[in-house]
Design brief:
- The chain has about 270 residues and is an alpha/beta fold.
- It folds into two domains: about 5-105 and about 245-270, Rossmann fold, CATH 3.40.50; about 105-240, Rossmann fold.
- Helix content is about 40%, strand content about 20%.
- It has helices at about 20-30, 45-55, 70-75, 80-85, 105-115, 135-145, 160-170, 220-230, 240-255, 260-270, and strands spanning about 5-10, 35-40, 60-65, 80, 90-95, 100-105, 125-130, 150-155, 170-175, 185-190, 210-215, 235.
- Strands 2-1-3-5-6-4 form a six-stranded mixed β-sheet, sandwiched between helices.
- It is globular, with a radius of gyration of 19 Å.
- The structure holds 2'-monophosphoadenosine-5'-diphosphate.
- 2'-monophosphoadenosine-5'-diphosphate binds near residues 135, 136, 156, 157 and 199.
- 2'-monophosphoadenosine-5'-diphosphate binds near residues 134, 136, 191 and 199.
């Protein structure tokens, strides 16, 4: 009988579209090992049950995506500092004895993509983040660690931007009152792109923008990135590199091996 391979999984709903199995397969090739990485569809409200089953059957680590990141946060026994700050868990590490640690690698995934793959420094830069939902809350603490000059959060619902900005000690501003030509890096963290919608930001806001970045990838990022380029952004990038980056940090937490993200981003770009 063949030996059982180390088993990992990503939980979500929907999950059929997830690129994580392909990405982790590339990491395993780099490490020269064989692993199994599957997609698990959990029903709303049934994350805990699905996770318990997976780990009882010998699972060695899991990723968690929409809509279960806060369920995962509640389910684990302990949190990393960055998961605590985000209030969300995207990586579960079994500790033994029925205990589990929850981490969040979304922020470091974003930062590693911007600084390594996009070769854009964050230190001393003025950063604008559009959106104030779960995706943004997950990355602000890690962006702050890069010592930007400042971070401004702008959101369609202004009160949410204000609340988040207060929580992290950064600035907030109304979407339609953003200053022209002030921001070096503009990150779209809204979910409107899935329906082809972009946040209502004046073109002048992109005046000196060196990098416009969308946290989603593929077609969902297209409208925002096209608008940013037309408005003067020098460079644009979708969130494929962030996806690979967060996966790489998860892989390292489970296996102690640090994958090189650049060749995997290139590989995934061709595959998408
Ligand atoms: P996620 O976990 O993906 O961040 P979320 O918590 O539902 O999802 O947050 C979605 C974010 O996208 C919010 O900031 C939302 O703005 P509101 O707080 O005003 O709802 C933003 N968003 C969604 N559709 C948008 C659109 N068409 N234009 C501008 N912002 C939009």
């Amino acid at each position: 009988m063949a030996a059982t391979l180390p088993r990992y999984a990503v939980f979500g709903n929907p999950i059929a579209h997830s690129k994580s199995p392909q990405i982790h397969r590339q990491f395993a090739l780099q490490e020269k090992v064989r692993i199994e990485y599957e997609r698990i569809l959990a029903e709303p409200g049934a994350f805990a049950e699905a996770a318990e089953r997976f780990f009882a059957e010998g699972g060695l680590g899991a990723n968690v995506t929409v809509p279960f990141k806060t369920d995962a946060y509640d389910w684990v026994s302990e949190h990393s500092e960055r998961a605590e700050a985000a209030g969300a868990v995207n990586t579960i590490i079994p500790l033994g004895g029925g205990r589990f640690r929850g981490d969040n690698t979304d922020g470091v995934g974003l930062v590693s993509d911007i600084t390594e793959a996009q070769e854009t420094a964050l230190k001393n830069r003025r950063i604008l983040i559009l959106g104030a939902g779960g995706a943004v809350r997950g990355v602000v603490p890690v962006l702050l660690q890069q010592q930007p000059a400042d971070i401004t959060i702008a959101n369609r619902t202004e009160t949410k931007a204000r609340e988040l900005a207060e929580r992290f000690g950064v600035r907030s501003a109304p979407l339609n009152g953003l200053p022209a030509g002030r921001f070096d890096i503009i990150i779209n963290g809204t979910s409107g792109g899935l329906g082809g919608e972009i946040p209502a930001v004046a073109p002048e806001v992109f005046g000196i923008c060196e990098l416009a970045y969308d946290m989603v990838y593929g077609a969902a990022a297209q409208a925002f990135l096209d608008y940013a380029r037309r408005s003067g952004a020098k460079k644009t990038a979708d969130g494929l590199g962030m996806l690979v980056g967060q996966a790489a940090f998860s892989y390292r937490l489970w296996r102690g091996f640090s994958p090189d993200i650049k060749p995997v981003i290139r590989y995934m770009k061709e595959a998408v």
